[in-house]
Amino acid sequence: MPAPPATALVAPPRVTPLLAAVALSLLLGLQPVTTDVYLPALPMLTAALGAPMGQAQLTMSALILAFGLAQMVWGPVSDRIGRRPVLLLGLVLYTVASAGCALAGSIDVLIVWRVLQGAALAAAVVCARAIVRDLYEPVQGAQVMALALSGLGVIALIGPLLGGVTALAFGWRGPLTVVTLVAALTLIFIAARLPETLARPDPGATRLAPLLRRWREIAANRVFRAWALLVACSYGGLFTLLAASSFIYMDVFGLSPAAYGGAMALGSLSYLGGTLLCRRWIRQHGLAGAVRRGGGFTLAGGVLIAATAVAGLPAPWAVGAVLLSQCLYCFGHGMHQPCGQAGVVGPFPHAAGAASALAGLLLALVAFAVGRWLGVALDGTVRPLAWGLAFWSLMTVLVAWTWAQRTEG
């Protein structure tokens, strides 16, 4: 698929839109690799390590919390010294932590490695978002981001399938070994192909007083607040799916790890479709117009899964209804994320790292709260997944149809 037209601000000669999109796909793709590949193994490792549900969920929610908090460090540091050194250090740490996860001998050790993995993952994601602002204006950046997230959708499509197959073949350590290999390959590609993109590093970016002032200014910006809330709410629903789906599909509905991987891959395929349609709608309707239309799919997914829980459908019908709900929600998510991630850094060409970090912290706090709630709420029925997804679909639509519409004009 050809790269979208984009107007570079200060693009190094070797950073074409296609190279930027591929690099962003790999960097942002580490997030679903970290979660999606691991999901088919989650019930297996819970049983193998004798972990209660709360600790099993902590392997997800602690990672996300570390991911959010670490962005507050990586973002300003990348504004000061550049994206490339932060990326390389973060990817080295991420690879080491991934190997540690695969070798962990207890749930407590696994949680520690997952925390380090989340902190290192933050470097990749915060720099990826900032790179978009380094190179492009917001609308063009959203188009490149949509192309990159299409690539991420392909990664997310393959991830659960690969996780399910390797879990069946090698047990719960198999998917975590796959994550380690992906991490190493991403490190090699970024080291070899992606040059520095920050044209004017800010020597004062990590000074505490100016940094606190900058964060206050960013948080006070209505455009930032709208897009950051949209990203956080949309991801809240996605994280509900990620953290609860393996227990619902495998423990409640009785799917095998491979079949569960196929179910999650369908959601990823829907997400990929959403990013592709998003690129067209951004050109035709702008960022606000794209998320307004995407909200319809998000709401449909939330309403359908809530109706499924209320109706108490028998298992074969319930599986189909939950899967359709998941696909609808993921399709909408594929529209909200490119627009939202480009929107949060749009007003801040010289502080994109700090803005990206603040938005990432909000997203992580939402996901951490979801994970802790699910650790208590999962009860062997589809209801926790249904109520969680329905809630976040309503919140996402509220932001997409109100505050996001006020960012234009």
Descriptive report:
The protein has helices at 17-36, 42-48, 53-81, 83-103, 107-135, 138-170, 173-193, 208-220, 222-252, 257-311, 315-345, 352-377, 383-401. The protein has 409 residues and is mainly alpha-helical. It has one domain (17-407): Up-down Bundle (Growth Hormone, Chain: A). α3 (53-81) runs antiparallel to α12 (352-377). The longest helix is centred in the C-terminal third of the chain and has 55 residues, at 257-311. The model is unreliable at 1-13 (pLDDT under 50).
Question: What attributes does this structure have?
Answer:
mainly alpha; 82% helix; 13 helices; 409 residues; Growth Hormone, Chain: A; globular
Summarize the structure.
The chain is mainly α and 409 residues long. 82% of the residues lie in helices and 0% in strands. The chain has 13 helices and no strands.
Q: Class, according to the CATH hierarchy?
A: Mainly Alpha
Oligomer: single chain
Instruction: List the domain count as a whole number.
Output: 1
Tally of separate helices = 13
The best one-word shape is globular
User: Percent of residues in beta strands?
Assistant: under 5%
**Structural class of the helices, strands and pairings?**
mainly alpha
Mean pLDDT over all positions: 89
Radius of gyration: 20 Å
Low-confidence stretches: 1-13
The CATH topology name reads Growth Hormone, Chain: A
Q: What is the helix fraction of residues, given as a range?
A: over 70%
Question: Whole-Å distance between the termini?
Answer: 32 Å
